[in-house]
Amino acid sequence: MRKILATAAAAILMTGAAPTIAKQDKNEPILVDAVTPSVQWASDVSVDLDRELLRIRPSARTGMPNGLVQVRFEVQDGKAVNARVFHRSGDSWLDRQAVRSIERLADIPDVPGVGDVRTVQANIITASSENAYRVLSARLVDMEEARMASSGAERTVIALNAGTPPAG
Question: Does the keyword section mention Signal (predicted)?
Answer without folding.
Answer: yes
